[in-house]
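Quick one before lunch.
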Amino acid sequence: MPPLIFRKGLDMKAAVAGALAEDYHSTLVDRIKQDDYTYTAPGLVLHLAREFGFCYGVDRAVDYAYQARQRFAGRRVFLTGEIIHNPHVNAKLRTSGIRFLSDASESVEALTPDDVVILPAFGVSVGDLERFVSIGCTLVDTTCGSVLNVWKNVTRYARDGFTAVIHGKVHHEETRATASQALTCPGGRYLVVLDRDEAALACDHIRHGGDPAAFLHRFGQAVSEGFDPDRDLQRIGLANQTTMLMSESLEIGEMFRAAMRDRYGEAALPDRYRAFDTICSATQERQDAVIALLDQHELDVMIVVGGYNSSNTCNLANICAERVATYHIAEPACLVSAGEIRYRPVVPHGVPRQKVSEARAAGWLPSRRPVRVGLTAGASTPNNIIGEVVRRMAGFLAEP
Ligand code: SF4
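Model of the iron/sulfur cluster complex:
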């Protein structure tokens, strides 16, 4: 029997609507939106970006997880790992009884056909999906449509003999899943580039050739097995993790296009180079909105809320840090006091993220009053967390 796979909800939307509202809604955030995205309190003027927080993909994934828990109340329900990169949401799901296969105490081998497995918004690799299918688990697939769109194009590249060049983070779940799609066709291959520096190295190899061993040493786990840069960079198709910085993805696409043109000539480009925009609209809207916020308001401090491992949140923080003092915080408690904050420092391009740990800063709020604060949040941050950040900030500034 093929396993049961739910991809369009579980007919329990109305049944879980109350719980979702209770866990994630914020009347304060609603009020700020009504007040032209501005909040004023003694000592504080706060401007909220016009697009922020939960995206359509995350909204749907969390909704399906709640539906799954309720529909399969008598069965074990698992997530493969974090459903989205937000500690608050993952903690809520744990409290509801959903278990995480990524925990050391759990294992895929222990799954049975009676179990339910929820696949996260950023998808799982082809290999992982096949394992769950072979066990016969019931699957609740919350993979976002924007991610599926990337997969469709990467699969097409592989089918047509193009190597997928993916702008993304090689250890990110979404990029691993996307790369695995390139291997579903015979001869399919991929290369993952993190940033402009890595793209420049690959472009240099396209233009001038080089030592394949040195290339493979540099790109390590970022290429498919048996990758040969001399053979596999002759026909390439660009794709990206949906949550990357759009300006950088476009630039990297142009870098590869120019390298292919230099190597093979303009006339050969249609046979050698393909690209399509795979930044999802929600990511783009949040990046555009924060740029507009920075353009429109003089700010003393920018607060960006979201999990430290949330790619789109990190990119929002990167954008802000170029213009104003920026603090990327994971939760309201990071605002320790008016004099102290815990935050994740913005990471310059090329520095592996796992090397960055949370920092503390004293004197993060300027002495001027009112303090002018900008606020945004990544696509996996619920409104109640954003509302709590505002409340805490107002509380500090109300103190004499
Ligand atoms: S950030 Fe984009 S791709 Fe990711 S879940 Fe949200 S809408 Fe989907």
